[in-house]
UniProtKB/TrEMBL annotation:
It holds the Pfam family FA_hydroxylase. This is Fatty acid hydroxylase superfamily protein. Its main location: membrane. It comes from Mycolicibacterium chubuense. GO terms for biological process: lipid biosynthetic process. Keywords: Membrane, Transmembrane, Transmembrane helix. The keyword Membrane applies. It is found in: Membrane. It comes from the Bacteria. The lineage of its organism: Bacteria, Bacillati, Actinomycetota, Actinomycetes, Mycobacteriales. InterPro entries: Fatty_acid_hydroxylase, Sterol_Desaturase_Related. The chain crosses the membrane at residues 20-39, 45-65, 86-106, 118-139, 176-206. Residues 123-256 form the Fatty acid hydroxylase domain. GO terms for molecular function: iron ion binding; oxidoreductase activity. One of its GO terms (cellular component) is membrane.
Amino acid sequence: MSPTSPTSTAATAAQAVARYGYVPFMLIGLNGAGIAFSAAGAPKYWLLAVLVVAIATTFLVERVIPYDVTWNRDRGDSTRDRIHVAVNETLILASVAAIPLLAAMVPAPQLWSHGWPFVAQVLAAILVADLGITVVHLASHKIGVLWRFHAVHHSITRLYGLNGLMKHPLHQTVEMAAGVAPLILIGLPVDVASVLALAVAIQLLMQHSNADYRIGAAKYVLALNEGHRFHHLKWAGIGDVNFGLFTLVWDHLMRTYSYDPTRQFDSNQLGMAAEPDYPSSYLRQLIYPFTHAGGCSLKSLTTATTADGNVPIPPSDQGSARL
């Protein structure tokens, strides 16, 4: 037996570091850097620098430990996804910049706990925003007018970091409004909102990344890619699970949590079975929800059932289980 080469040993070590270190680095390291910069009063461009590091890290890890190597290959969608990211991230940043103006227009009692440690303020903002965004996300799978716009996100047939922000800008605005508006009404500081915006972007990268990382039992609580893949199953009802952005707490409470450790995903299971030919270009995706064809039938918005009341599961999905 030939000895293990230094190259293969280094590759194995890199994979181990990526598999177990990616989430702590992103979740604690980069979010922590954003908190530290904001607490110290650093210019906001430092948060953009942290976001660039987060994107670069995700792209690197997706190549070191890909869940599906084919998901790293451009399918004529990379440019479109970058446009989605640029537009939607600009909207997020604009909403943060507009907070002082919004607060002045809608006077509200200053209930925010400014005396709390800065990190506690950020965590509180994340939990409140998580609830608002989760509720709108769930509603977007049940209400036709919301689904028209949310369907853009579900048209993807590969999961990788950048398509976390592959959303129609109107739907992105509604989701963020649901998460941030309650916070603004109780006096959310701009510095906290800035870190929240960074945390949202980092979370979307991790949640959709094509990385076969490990988080142990935390996968039952944190809304990361291992659980979020179930949300992108293309069959109505079966994919109406795991709606949380930051956590799966609300999904457990709403009984929309699903997980099956034996399940393996590929592109044939992603997208929308009801709309396999959904437009793929950015401009068409921008316009399509406003057209007659951009709507969905009631069947594609609700859980289909057989005569005995059971959810029909395609032959390739007999191992799937909703808990």
